[in-house]
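re: ur question from earlier - yeah i can do the single chain one, its not a big deal. heres the input i used so u can compare w yours
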Amino acid sequence: MNRQQPRILVAAALGRIVEPILNDGIEGAEVVLAACPDAVRRAVEGRLRFDVVLADLLWNDRRLERNFDGLDVLDTLRELRRSAPAIMAAEGNDTERDFLDEASVRPDVVGVVHKSRGPADLVEAVRLASTGRRLPPLRFPTGVDGTKPTLHDYFGSGRRGATCARMAGAIAAGRATDYRSLHEAAHVPLNTANKLVGYLGPLIVARGEHPSHLPMNCQAVFRWCGRHEHYILSWCRRYGHPDATEPTTATAEPA
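and the output i got, formated as tokens:
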């Protein structure tokens, strides 16, 4: 690695705003921008490995927000054998929590920066990562402290977890409104769809996301899937269950 001239990939819908900040703050930096899925692949494929990847955790683009995110960026680099130390840029909203839970256990993620903290923190984070160091951990993700199950762990726990993910994905994608349509959209047996509450209810309760004085029923599960829509769709897409959600692939360059 050339410490004096780090190669930085900025994978973000508004990367052009970050580029001058990094150029001014890190002398000799080579900053490459990628504003959509195709651009990320073009920036990486067949080229030298980047020293640091700075990626938006969630992309501020309505054409991409449900079918591409910062974890997709990391998967693209891994697929192309170009993995590099990655920093996730987060806004700190509740939608990001599930994504941060997964990012916190990925070996390629060296830290998270809050966009609201300004350019100085951003430049320092990239500088640290370019020298092989990790950023101080953040503590606000839901399951990072181990006291609550994360969606990533639950969905990844064998066949039952995968079934949970498929049913949650079909609901989050708006493809199921009752047990029969859930059976058809998620491609699970009707008897399994009828047991939706038994599959996802324990996760919801363990996370403290259902009022204890109300019954746990299918309506509560459907509502919960809507609350976690972005991450559920992302997880299904990235872990081999896109047929349950039928995502639309967005590849056009944002304006």
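Residues 158-172 form the longest helix (15 residues). not sure if urs matches, ping me
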